[in-house]
Amino acid sequence: MNQLKCGDKVLSLATPQVMGILNVTPDSFSDGGKFKQFDSALLQVEQMLKDGATIIDIGGESTRPGAADVSVDEELSRVIPVIEAIKARFDTVISVDTSKSEVMSAAASAGAGMINDVRALQNDGCLDAMTTNDLPICLMHMQGMPRTMQANPQYDNVTSDIIDFIAERIRVCTEKGIEKHRLLVDPGFGFGKTLMQNYQLLNQLSAFKALELPVLVGISRKSMIGNLLDADVENRLAGSLAAALYSVQQGAKIIRVHDVKETVDALSVLAAAEQPELTRGK
Ligand code: 9MG
């Protein structure tokens, strides 16, 4: 259970892993033409890997609250060339953040090592698409859809409702033939949750251990940090690091972040505090 087979690579989850975020949506590259954008994406990947990321999560569809839909062709044209270029240049696990079956299949053929689906394989064709490869899949919880999800999210009990939802998605996946050892779970911070619901969920994150699958968490720079601290997006680093450390202490195995170096440093200090013998020889 501590190892995840990601295509031709094996990822150890014996220690927490950092997943670096690579958005390839037009709003993430405001400076110039397509080639410049491509180069800048690869430079960003190179830096994140130097800083200690072991997974790069490529997203061609914005899932921010209020974000518009993207066509299959547009998403394919944003994501597939970037997967191919990363695969040719770097030795890393490539995760693809998508909810489209066509993108899942094309990404798997292009060399992706993981699929990260914020809709937990609920869209048409996704379950079938993922039975034709053996990649790991992150099943994330979202209430509603990005355009409207923050309108008025409602739960009886935020943590147990989300655990029940994910348990049902695990059941559906395994019934389809997608083995449990391929699955990761994610409570979906910020996806249809109020500020208080997000912090209740963070407080109770260890309850997700009951699902007996690796937990992935994405809190980096989100509104749950900004709204708590009254901080704009450039001033959320300290809050994001605190959330990352707390998540790992509650059992999270993969942390999805923008600020890779700072997160890796913070996790190294946490690991040394927990196991001082790790510092031997330094
Ligand atoms: C794509 N994306 C944005 N936020 C995310 C989160 O919290 N988890 C996962 N798995 N993906 C996310």
Q: What string, H for helix and E for strand, traces the elements in order?
A: EEEHEHEHEHEHEHEHHEH
What structural class should be given to the helix and strand makeup?
Answer: alpha/beta
Distance between the termini: 30 Å
Give the overall shape: globular
- Give the oligomer, counting copies of the same chain as homo and different chains as hetero: single chain
Counting DSSP H or I runs of 4 or more residues, the number of helices is 9
Helix content: 40-55%
Task: Tell me about this structure.
The structure is a single chain. The chain has 282 residues and is α/β, with parallel strands linked by helices. The chain has helices at 34-50, 72-89, 101-110, 126-131, 158-176, 195-203, 223-229, 237-249, 260-274, and strands spanning 3-6, 9-12, 17-23, 55-59, 93-97, 114-117, 137-140, 183-186, 216-218, 254-257. The chain has 9 helices and 10 strands. Strands 8-7-6-5-4-3-10-9 form an 8-stranded parallel beta sheet. The two termini are 30 Å apart. The structure holds 9-methylguanine (9MG). The site of 9-methylguanine has 13 residues, from strand 7 and strand 9.
